[in-house]
Amino acid sequence: MRVLGIDPGLTRCGIGIVDSSGPQNLKMVGVGVIKTDPEAALEYRLLELEKEISIWINKFKPDVIAVERVFSQLNVRTAIATGQAAGIALLLAAKNGIPVGVHTPSEVKAAVTGSGRADKKQVAQMVKRLLKLEEIPKPVDSTDALALAICHHWRGVGNTRLANAKKKALKKK
User: Fold this and answer.
1) Secondary structure percentages of the chain, helix, strand, coil, to 5
2) Which end of the chain is more exposed for a tag (fewer CB within 10 A), N or C?
3) Is 107 one of the catalytic residues?
4) 7 is annotated as an active-site residue
5) Catalytic residue, candidates 19, 48, 52, 68
6) What are residue 48's DSSP bridge partners?
7) Residue 170: its pLDDT value, please?
8) Residue 44: is its pLDDT beyond 70?
């Protein structure tokens, strides 16, 4: 199974592809960060995200897209921007008929490190170890995207089945 992990963000959107041929056999296929110009108008930033995520979908043909669930933060502007970026990823998944798994930050941390309260350093170290990488991908947004993909490989089966069932129900209407 191939999972495209997306750590949504308007200025920096982490993106990573992880393949699995078994629970302990994970392989990073690609990783990066999509950046948009903070000075550009919102609609053009969202358009840039749409264009770049589409390129990743077309190039890597994921079986599932795993997106971090947007949660209420102290900074409302940041939460809204993150939600807008996540919306682009979800829309593209639907347009391409790709099931989606949505995971909370604590769920991702727990899946990757064993603790839902792990810090970013611990998550990055475990991503490096689990994917047998020589170094930690930079910036942290890319590492977070890989962690999302790993989390989905290990915990997302139920989420993916639910998404597939919803997709089939919509086609019958």
Assistant:
1) 55, 20, 30
2) C
3) no
4) yes
5) 68
6) none
7) 53
8) yes
Q: Of 7, 48, 52, 107, which one is the catalytic site residue?
A: 7
Which one of 52, 107, 141, 144 is the catalytic residue? Answer: 141
CATH number of the domain that residue 138 is part of: 3.30.420.10
Residue 65's domain comprises 2-172
Give the total number of structural domains in the chain: 1
Find, among 146, 170, 11, the residue nearest to 68 by Cα: 146
The pTM for the full model equals 0.89
Contact predicate 72/79, CB 8 Å: yes
The helix (run of H) or strand (run of E) holding residue 156 is none
Q: Which pLDDT score, from 0 to 100, does residue 88 have?
A: 98
d(CA 48, CA 118) in angstroms, rounded, equals 32
Burial of 7 (0-12, 13-18, 19+ CB in 10 A): buried
Q: What is the predicted pLDDT for the residue at 137? A: 96
